Structures are given as C-alpha cells and as structure tokens.
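Two records follow; treat each independently.
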Amino acid sequence: MISFFERRYVITGIFLTIIIILLARLFYIQVIDPRYAIYASNNVRREIIHNPARGPILDRNGKILVQNVPFYDIMVTPKLVKPFDTVEFCNLLGINRAEFDKQWQKAMKYSPTRSSPFEKQISVATFASLQERLSEFPGFYSTPRYLRTYPDSVAAQFLGYIGEAQDRDIKRSAGYYHSGDYIGITGVEKSYETVLRGQRGVENLMVDSRGKPKGRYANGMFDTAAVAGQRLTSSLDIDIQKLGEKLMKNKLGSIVAIEPSTGEILCYVSSPTYDPNLMVGRERGNNAARIYKDPFDPFFIRPIQAKYPPGSSFKPLSALIALQEGIIDPGTTYYCPGYYKAGNRKIPCNNGEAHGLVNLSSAVALSCNGYFSMVFQKIMDRNGAKKTDATFANWRNNVGKFGLGSKLGLDMPGESRGNIPTPLHYDNVYKKGGWRSSTIISLAIGQGELLATPLQLANLECTIANEGYYYKPHLIKAIGEQNIIKKEYTLRNYVGIDSQYFQPVINGMQAVVDKGTAIRSKIPGIVMCGKTGTAQNPHGESHSVFVAFAPRDHPRIAIAVVVENSGEGAHWAAPIASFIVEKYLKGSISQRESGITVDYYANATRLPDSATYLHSNSFNRRKALKADSIKKRMQDSVNNKLKGVKSASSKSKKDSSTRLLAAQQMHKEDE
C-alpha cells in the first residue's frame, strides 16, 4: 500500500513536470521569441511596396540638374496566374516568347507565392496600352517606379548614376533594399543616397493559403505612406559648367572652380565626359559597355582621381612656408643666370632664360626655378645636412596643412590623396642618411614625387585668396526644403601662415596675368591673380596647368585647370580658366586684346594617340587591375621582405625593416 502511494506521487510529479515544460515552451514561443509570430504573420500577410520618387538635384540658382520620370514594373505572383493568351501578352509588353519563358522561370525560382519583377522599366506610353487589358492576365500587376532624367545632359561625373541594388547592397542595408530596388552607384547619387531615396511606403494585405488577397491586414494599422526623397541644392553653376564642358571637348583633363568664401564648388568638369542620360533606361548596360571601351575612360573622375605634378603652381606655397619660418623675407633676392646648381645637379630656368636679380614677387611673376630652388634648399639645410630627414618631415607636415597629400573629404566617393613623399620613401630609395636637399631639389618646383589632384590645386588657390585658411570643398550647398548646411562646411581650416605674408605672393601672381606668362588671358575689367604651370609627363608632352583666383580684392572664384599633353600652362589651361572666371563674374565673355576666343579653344582637339595613351596610362585605368591581384602582389611583396629579414644579419635586418616599412607606406599611399 505504501509502495502504491509513493508511485502515485512519482507519476504525478512526472506529469506536472511535463506540463510545466510545455507551458514554459509555449510562453517562450508566444511571448519571448518573435520568430514564430513572424512566421505565422507571413503566412497570412503580404507586403506591397510603394516606391517613392528620388529627390531632385538643382544647381546653385535653382535650375534643375536631375529630376524623375515615371515608369512601371510589371510584377507577377506565379501561384495566382491562370491560363491566358501568352502571344497577346508578349505583344503588349514588346517581348518574344523566349524572353517570356526566361522571366517566368526566374519568377518561379524566386517564389511561386511571392511577387517579383517580371518585366522592368515599361515606359508610360507602353503601359498606357497595357493598363486597359492588365485585368485579363490574373497574377500580373503593375507598380510605379521612377528613373532619373538629365535635362541639360551635363555634370555626369558629379551627379553619378543609379542602378539596381546588388546582393552586397541588400545585405549591407539590413533588409531595407530588395531585389529590383534602385540605389546610387556613383557621384552625388551615392554620397547622398539616404537623403535622396526617401522612405518607401508599405501596404499590408491579408492572403489565404493560396496567396489570394482577402483584404487589408489589421485594417491598415501597419500601412505606411511613401515619402519622396529630399531635394539637394548643389553648389554648381550650370552656366559655367556647360561652358567648361564645351571648352574641354576633345581634350583630357579637368576644371575645378571653388568659391573661396564658402568652399562651394562652382564648376566640376572631367574630360572626356558622357551624357548621363545614357546610364538610364533599358539600354543602360549596352551604353555602359561602350563607355568602358573608350580608351580615355570617361568614367575616370579626373578632378579627384587624376594626380599630376603641380609644377610651378606649387611655387607660391613653398614661398609662404619659407616666409612663415623666417628663411626669407619679401626682399630676399637671387641672381638668376638661367639655371640653379644644387650639388652636381643643374636645374635650368624656363627655357634656360636668365632672369637676373629677382625678389619674391618678381620670381613668382617670372616663375623663376632658380629662386624657388634656392628657397627650398635653404629650408632643407637650415638644421644641417645630417638632419635633412627631420627637416623634410617638418616641411612635409607644413605642406600637408594646405590639403595636399591627404583627402579633403569631398562629399563624393573615390577621392585620391595625391602624394607627398615621406622620409621613409627616400630612405628606401637612397638608404637612410643617403639623401640631401640636392637629391630632392625637384620638389622645389612642384615636380618629382609630388602629386596633386585638380581639386587640391583649386583648394590651394582658395587658401591664398583667403590669406591663410580654406573651407572644406563640397558639392552640395543645402539639403531639403529647410536648406540645411552641414556644420563642417562652415569651419575655417587654417594652414599656419600669417596673413601678412600673402601679399608679396599675391603681387607676383597678379603680375603673372598683367604682364607675365599668362598675359594673353588677361580679362578686361577684372584683376585676376594666377600662376601658370607645366607638369612634366614622362609619356609625352607636358600637361598644361593654370591656377588662379579673382578678383584680387574680395575673391569670388578660385580655379584650377589641367589640360593633359598640351605643353605650357599659358597656352591652353590659362585661356580656358579666364573664360570660366569672366563668365562667372560678368555673365558674359568680352573680346580680348590678345584675340583668343571661346570657339577656338572649344573646337580644338588635344587628344593624344589612343593606343599610346592606353599603354602609358594603364596604371590610371581602374579596370586594368583587379583588386584581388593587387592584394596578392602586395602580400607577395611583404612576404618576400619578411623572408629577407629572417635570413639577414642584424645590420641587414635593420635595413630590410626600413625598406619594408617604406614599401608598405608606398602601397598604402597608392591604395
């Protein structure tokens, strides 16, 4: 009897334990873990996405650069499709039976019960005839979308383009994007994607086990309306942008113009360019393929990705550093015999011309290589030859304050840092302690390893125009109806040069235009301060460079122009810059005493031989090197260096480590 009662309690305990476990599991499933509720909800609920229109993009004066044009996607839910006239349906869509079968298999593979795009980008005209008969084809329905259109077909590299979201985009978005959604791929479209895309709307429908709609889910409690993307007001002036693209037709190079008092980019030309409307619509893929085959690569964004030796346009910066550090003063003179001798190196002045006795201002005006070589060597040798590396590091830091050698943080993807060589670079080339000021004297005149983007050159002119500071360059002036301006664009970036030192340099730059190398580009009624440059090109004729700002008092525009393979800056870059400056300041272009005209420069061709250019500039073309092969070569290089370190003596180890660090630094800068 006692044994029976003990068994009863044991059995009761077992049943109670099972019941408690089941209740706990039910509580976990229904209250704590949301997955099962989601699964249950998905069985009875279907989401219909309503895509918003992307925000328009305007120029600084309110003129439309980008707007939207509606189109339609034909969606399909295979489970709901009933027998229909396939031939008639194909005729209405303008496709053949093979295309129909391909799209049908794709939809079935995606999901028999969920909707997916069947035919994309149906024009309004085509949809008008289809809409009346769409009810004859159960399971098919339309959803409106928007494509971009470019009324003036300008500023392609600035605006960028949109395309369908790829798998990687969908994963990164944490579920926001779905297959068939559009996303900014390049340019401002990419940088301001979250602002331009708006907020999609969602309509929730109740469905039965066969996927048929049975009304609105929860009476529409969870539905949301689509919100259009915000408007962007760009800093571009469409009038000078059009003029710039006209002047750079059939040429390689770029134009960047900035308003010094704000950092707003007024003109952003990359040549060759392309019609941005080609990257829209059903022929987008074919058009892109043709553009990619162009040997001069219109997709290459020269204002921020091309790197050139700044040439003589760098000389004012070098003088400003020397003035600030007390190495020279405005009255410091140098007798130029037509060359400068640095150690065993002989650096000729322009065409071997002897300038005689020059001071700072006249040296800028005459672009005297000898004067600025003398200045640079004084800077490098002030602490003694044995401390050249430390002195150079300090000089490099001062140059970097002007925005060279680093990204300026433009609101555009793909910006290059340019290059200011490091002491480690020269240690790697000449061994530590094996180089002096005479070894790197080419930096004095903006040559050698020194490289800058056109954006950096234009920003340098802003700094000189403002006498010691610049605002962060940017392409978007204001966001939304409230015209929001990012705070970072209102902050001054000082370069560590006292304002008193700028006037002698500016005097020389004014003389460049008034009576110097750029006199043919003098603008009637406007005092323009500029500097011509000739950037050496090892693969052909030098690049023509010109930088300037105007007017001298209260500057309103700073500009940098680079025309590749075109010789001295005075011949091509300076006239083009002068037309842009006058158009912006006056609204028109007057007749010049020198006789130069817009039509002459717009119709001239300066394109090099395409085969030669493609071969010599393959390092600039993004499609020439794949990312994985670059990484492999870098890793192989590092591994080889490490092997050398392990097998060498203690002294060799130290030298190899130095070279390895330098190599890694160079790889980092190149990347």
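The next record belongs to a different protein.
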Amino acid sequence: MCRDNRNILEHMKHGAAVAVIDALGTVTGWSEGARRLTGHPAEDVVGRPAAGLLAGDIPDATLAARAGTVALRHRDGHRVDVALTACPVAGADGEPTGFVVTAGPPGSALAAEAFEQASVSMSVFDLEQRYLRVNDAACKVMGVSEAALTGRFFPDTVEEAEYNVGFLRHLREVAETGRPVRYESFAGAPALNREHLWSIEMWPLRDGSGELTGVAMAALDSSEQYWARRRLALLNEASTRIGTTLDVVRTVEELIDVLVPRYADFAGVDLLDWVLGADEPPMPPDGGVVLHRVAHGSTREGDPGAAVPLGEADVYPPHSPPARALRDGRAVLSQAGEPEFVEWLAERNARSPQGRPHRQDAHSLIAVPLRARGTTLGVAVCVRIDHPDAYGPDDAVFAEELGSRAAVCIDNARRFARERSTALALQHSLLPCGLPRQAAVEVAHRYLPSGSLAGIGGDWFDVIPLSGGRVGLVVGDVVGHGIQSSATMGRLRTAVRTLADVDLPPDELLTHLDDLVTHLAAEDSREEIAELGATCLYAVYDPVSRRLSLAAAGHPAPAVVLPGGTAETVAMSAGPPLGVGGLPFEATELRLPEGSVIALYTDGLVEDRDREVGDATEELRRALSVPTRSLEALCDDVLKAVLPDQPGDDVALLLVRTRALGADRVATWDIPPDPAEVGAARQAVGERLAAWGLDEAAFVTELVVSELVTNAIRYGEPPIQLRLIRDRALICEVSDASSTSPHLRRAHAYDEGGRGLLLVAQLTQRWGSRQTGRGKTIWAEQALPGT
C-alpha cells in the first residue's frame, strides 16, 4: 500500500508523472509530470476512463505484478512506451479504493532499484532542502526510515554541528547556482558510533525543459582511506622523530611519543637484556621471556597504569601476546573477551592493583616485536582504552612497519665492540640463507669469509627463480673489505634481483648494473666510494631448451663438466669490471645435456699472491672432474684441493647440476589470431591437464588461458603461441610478436573490460611479462594441487 496521501501529493507537486485512478478505472488525479509525458492536460483526462489513454493491451504479467512497460497514446497521436507502477490506495475499511500510478521511461524502475540498493549513501532534496528520496544506505547511516525523512527540512533531522551547517550551505549553493559541488567532511551520523570521513558530491537535477527541480547527493565513506593516510603521515613523522640521538633509552622514548596518543592510549617498550649491555638474556625455567621496561607513556595524567616500573625486569608468560610476538616475529592482536586478553589483563592487575582503574576500560591490545636486521631487540605493547576502535589488520601492518623503523634506530644506537663481527653479521644477513626450491637445477654452495686483518669482503652469490621454469645464477665480488664493501654487495645483490625480475638478458642486465655502480660512485664524494668497483657473472639456464646464456663483467669464467667428461673453462669475453662504463658486455650461449655441472666462483678461489692463477685454475678443473657422490661433497673436495691453508680473500663457490624438463612436461600450441580459437585453446589445455592428472587445476588454468589468449589476440600481433609447463608450479605462457607490455588497471563499475589481468593476478601465485627477441611473453604460475 502507498504510505499516505502526503507522499502522493509530494510526488505530484515535484513533477513526477503520477495519475490517481479510482476502483472503476476513472482518472481522478493528473500531475504536471503526466501532462508533460503524454501531452494531455488534466481537464482532458480527469473524470474519463484511464483505458482511453492506452495504445494497446496491457500484458497479463504486468497486470498481475502491477508494474511493467505499457504503451500509451500521446495527445499528438504517437505511441509512448513507459514503465508503470500501480500502488493500491486503501480506504478507511482497509479495502482498496483505487490506485496511484507512477510512470517513467522504460528502465526507470530498474534505475530506482539501483538507487535504493546502492552501497553509497544517496539522497534527493527539493530546492528548499527538504528530503524527497533517501536510499537504504542513507537510512542506515541516519538510523531512521525513509518515511521519517521524506518531506522534512534537512536541519530538522540532524544535530546542530559545524559539519551539518556546511552540508546545508552546499545544498543551498547547488540549488541557487545549478553547479555541482564536491568536498570532504569529517563528520558523524546518528547511526554511527564515531565520526567518519565522507567524500560528498552534490549535483543539480533538471527536468526535460532544463528547469532546476532538485539536488541529488551521494556520500562515500572514505574513513579507511583517511586512517590509512593518517597512519602513513605518522610513519613519515616517525622517520624524523625517532633516532635523533645514539642513546637507546632516548630512542625508545621517542617511539613512545609517536605512539601516544594518536595510535595508543597506553604504550610500553621492553628490551632484551643484551640490547642494554648484558651478555645473554636470562631465561626462566618455564620458558617465559625476560625483558626490561625502558619507557612507557599514557594519555592519562599521573599513574599511566603501567604494571612494570621503569628499569625493572618483566617476565611475559609463554602464551601472552608479547611473548607470542617475540616468538613469531610478527604483530599479535588481542581483543576484550578473548581468553588471552582476559588472562593478560588479570595478570597485569594482580601485579599492579593500583593501576586497575586505568585498565578497566581497556578493550584492544597489539604487541609488535622490535626487529632490526633480522634480530629481535624487544617488544612494544600498545593498548586502546578511550579510543573507540579496536586494532585491526591494517593497524598490525602499521605497527610492524613502525616497529621495524624504530628497531633500526635502536640498533643503530648501540655500538658494536668489534667492526669485524659487525661486518661478518651483515655479510651473513645479506647472503641467501636458504636458496629457493626450483626444478631447473640442483645447487650446492660455500662461502668462506676472509681471515685476514683486512676484514670481511663483498663476495656474494645467488640463485634466482625466473619465469618459465628458468633460473638465474649470480656470483660477484665487490672491491675492498669491511662494512662498506658488504653494504655495497647488498645493494648490488638487490639490484641484480630487481633486474632479473624484469627478465633482462645477461648482457643487458650487466649494462644496467654497470650504470648503477657508476651512479653510486658519482653520488658519494667519499674517497672509498670514488674507487668503488665490482665484478659479476650472471647466467640464465632454461631447463626446457637446456640452454645456458651468460655474461661477465670482469669476473672469472665458470667451468663446465659435461656428464662423463672433464671440466673445461667456458670460452667467453669477461668484459670490463662494473663501474668502468662505456664498454659493452657480450653474452655467450651454450646448450648443455642434462646432468652437466657448472662451477661459478669468485677470484678468491684461484687468486693468491703465492701461486699463479693458471695453476690454481688447473687444480680447480681437476678437482671438478673427479666423480663424487653429491654436489655437497664436490664443494668440500674443491675447496680442500684448491685453497691454501690461509686464504687471503673471501671465497664464494656455487655448483649447479642442470636438469631438463622433457616433452612430457611441456605442451605448446600455435594459436591462430581468431577469437573463436579461445575455446579450442581452453579445451586443449583441459585435455592436457587431464593427461597430467591435474584435473583439480583445470578450472583456474582454463580461466587464465582464456584471459591471456584473448588479450594476445585482441591486443597483440601474430604469431601467437601458448605453452604449458608442469614444473614445481604449473606455468602458463602466451607469446606474441607485440613488444607492448600489459599492466594492471582498475576497471570502473560500468567498464565492459579491463579486468582480465586483475583476474589472472588474483587466481595465480604470481604473473608477469618478459621481452623476447620476437615480441613478448605473458606468464602466470599457480601452485600444483597438493603442494
């Protein structure tokens, strides 16, 4: 039933196409909007049968639903298709006495449903700032129904507040000028428990003649983005406020000043004993963690409610949030009502009863470990009491980032006693701790730091998984010794990984790396940087083609041992060392049988002032040629046979045994540039997955294949090729002759396309593109079932 006569009058007053029909089918009411729609004035229609306005029969389904598309006859004779909705009007006895019929263009009913069901808060006002329409989202924000708002003046529905005055001012501005307005307001709403940031847009509504009839408004809740910006601003502020001195206690106090009051109502920082100078942190028998309270702060004056006085030791039970954060190396959230939160609060109250009043309203806690360079220094505990919002996942990310930055400052504040131990710790933290699993090669490696007084050098090695089942092999050496060389090594290793991720060929990768070293030397005026230099060898092995492509920058060439053969040094151009600049690097390519062994090493293995390089290289080839039970054993045998008793330089050795992916693990199809071929490609992939016993992966893989092949046909250039590789992961590759690389973009709500790569990114573990000599290849990897 229609709500009441007031709503009928409001619709008729504000220009809607409305007619009132009694129980006998006679028109008893006719709005100005109905006149504009049909051309019939009220005097020609009121009192006459409504059937006379029809240009055809009303479908039975429309009659039953009292809604649908109906053909009317315009006054000038042409047919007008409109969407009608009939709403029964009840009499005093509850029986229908007629109908209120509203009309609009076809599809207007769907548009009305879209308005009602929109997730964005939307409202329509007349030119006097009275509510005409309010959608469901706006009703939830206001905490009342649409009927309670319709026809009411906006200021009568809200409290007197500055943001509501501003809202009314903008409504009037749009009504008076006819120009849209867009602005942001940090405001509250009756149904919300705190203020939110709203992105508000108002625009004028006009009828067919262009006359201004009302103002529409949409408000998007941007609170999450607002708080994200606040967290980012706090991180930027922390970068300047934390670490202004080299005093550990002062650095921790600066962290507390950043946290309270904007992030926490109470915050405390406890550090492990050894950070404050003790040799080892004592551990109690029950496995709890012993720390010392260094600083705390609170929004409440006087006693901040801290259970542990400054400078005293604290033992966290093993299952408490701080102990878990220390053990797991990540932020731990806990909310009121959860067992561990209740237990933690009870333990705090038992330890410090005088602080109980300050803790009684505590409702959320986050404990974040303070970690720098892979080392845990302590823990920061943040508690919310007066702040209405509980900590969430975004707060945990912020806490970990802030804790990481603060931990670096704390770690910088304490001085290591010996430079060599510092350099060695840094060297080990930068070298790969565990090489990634991949099917292309079997790997064994050794790194021996120098025992000389010169200190630790800058040798490094790496194994980098690449797309298509390939693998990148790296070994390098930075000139000099000490912390500076180790730090430069870390920069270069990171740069190589970044460039390798772009899938550059070895000679191009070394060219970019050479530019980086040149820029590093130019940007720093210190003498040791001015003499910066490094050597590097980068190789890429493809287990499908069994090809090894490699290039070197002033680095010793690797040795290769073919199955059943003897070791031979690869004939290649070493190129200039990194940092020389202006000279080219040349790539060499080999085709290796499965089971070949490649030995990559730094010059510390073969160069020594007490022997010739040629003699040491020959010893290396002989040691590599001796059959052994494993690569690990071969590593030990090589070092034992080649190195002197007291090596004068760091040594890095990387041994690699090649593997091959046979035809039974690779499937390739040539795709004609016809959209009709997409279905055939999906079917072929499904059949191959079934043959491989990977039916569980078929659904996702076929979706990925469909998106990538469609993109190649639509945006690429022939020839187009599809390749499926069954490695440790399932790899899908689509190649075409176009060199234009794809990129993710955010598709808008009404866009017909633009979501393909986003879908691929969400369905797979990782994806990317690489340039080839004949165009580009788009690839995506997904985990195999059961892995």
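Discussion point: Residues 393-413 form the longest helix (21 residues). How would you locate this feature using only the token line?
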